[in-house]
Amino acid sequence: MWSDKESSVDFLNFNETAESIKDLITERELMPISVGVFGNWGAGKSTILELTKKSLDEEGDYIQIRFDAWTFEGFDDAKAALLETIASELLKEAEGDKGLVEKAKEFSKRVDAIRLLSLMAESGAALSGIPLFGLGQKLVSYFDDEPDNELEEGEAESDFELGDVAEVADKVQKAAAKGKGIIKPKKKLSPPTEIRKFRSAYAKLLEGFDKPLVVYVDNLDRCSPINAISTLEAIRLFLFLPNTAFVIAADEDMIRLAVQHFHKGASIRHQKDYLDKLIQIPVHVPKPGVEEVRAYLMMLIASDKKVDVEEFNKIRNKLEESLRLSWQQDPITIDDLIADCNIDNVEEIRAEFKVAEQLAPILASSSHINGNPRIVKRLLNQIRMRLKTAKRRGMQLDEKTITKLVIFERCMGTQATNKLYELIDKEKGKPEIIAEMESSDTDFKVEKLPDEWKEDLEFLEQWAELQPPFAEQDLTAAAYLSRQSIPMGAINAVMSGAATKLLDGLSKQKNRISEANSKLLDATPQEEYLSVMDALVEQFKLIEDWKKLPLGIYGARLLSLKDDKCKNVFLTYINTIPSQRWMVPIVNELKGGK
């Protein structure tokens, strides 16, 4: 089995991208800098961050902090979580140097002040009208303080003992409920002043360290729009401060949707401008091609087979070199790849590498996989789980047979898979249509295919060529295992956060037109559409009364207009339910646009 976590070992030649980011960071004259690592769910953004961090570790003396935004989703204010993570890590870094410790404590104090401003904005909005960070929020702030020589004319210092910030905010909240203040303030806590002092304390601390700080922000696109934007607002506090780099991994489209959600009425231009101002240099995760997927599969196999570290690195280095030179020469052959490797089970690995070589084109080109590393890894885990189940039950099934069926399920969807299993049951494990598809001697006629299979003929042609051939094989046990291992409604359950949000939006759509769902569609990778439609159909199967147009039908219509395969799945299902008057215009529209 393979872990779904980011890797510090490069399986997809992402080192080139990581090295490019490292080169930007190590150019001191470019500091401060913010780099955006953009890509779809599962594309490898987290791995690129990890590889960049590893490369900088080898390069020189840097303070590196990793912040997983999703970890704090629902537990804390995202802005406070990022600021406090940075403050606590810098305090640890300062240990042993009294002067730096004092500066780190001063910076931590400024972080507390910024957090208090945010908490009081939420808790005591009724008490004052001072805007916070341009977000239109209200806050009240007050505490005894002493003047600060560094303040500009007319500003007041707010050097207070915070203690428990949450407790202070709670008092403000209770006071707000009563309509009166806690104490009479002598001086107000000014957001511009506190932000200026925060930045000043940070700059002095970094000057004391005399080495750059690099902060890696990951999983931002998994967060709610409020937390995603809150984290970006925290990053904005550090912009243009010396010796600082932020490397932010995110799905660009999801962040723009978050901007639109958070700042109501923001135009497309404003959404783009917001991100462009925060991200100075965008870096897009390269989409894996056939050779990259081939190398990725081989590295996963070598890892799973527990190949010795030294021999594993030989294989990895050869594959990396082959990918770097792919523009001018053919990929390295399997025999050359393992030629001088001292591997005990070399013949077994060679056989699995051959399977990987055969699978790579279909995994790279299928519109429902697109070489996405996370999807590829999860498919392999599904295959491995089914294989273990088969062995426990005494089923004589090999990994290749299971693999071929799992790929069909993922790429063709629930309705097409249902039809496949129906044919297997009906024809005693040996569907004639599959034998005809696999035969090179037969002039195959497309019209013989079930309607559920006709939307992706290119995939079917590639799939029929996969080993092993099913023509003479009894697939009864394999089909039974598939249905037992993964319920039909969960065949395509490998969904990203974007697809999950789309499913939720479409299933609740009440009207023919939904601007919000149209934006969610645009933010979801196309390879996820079929998974969403299958999930919608499974929800429709729970409906008993079809006289009234059910919730979600317009959502399914919207998705059908976007993708022909989804349209076919939806129309096929609609034909199975009692005919209703409300169906006619929807069905006519979809058939007319087919």
Automatic annotation (TrEMBL):
Pfam family, one: KAP_NTPase
UniProt cross-references to InterPro entries, sorted A to Z: KAP_P-loop, NTPase_KAP_P-loop, P-loop_NTPase
Domain (KAP NTPase): residue spans on this chain: 15-386
Gene3D superfamilies membership: P-loop containing nucleotide triphosphate hydrolases
Descriptive protein name: ATPase
Naturally occurring in which organism (per UniProt): Pseudoalteromonas luteoviolacea
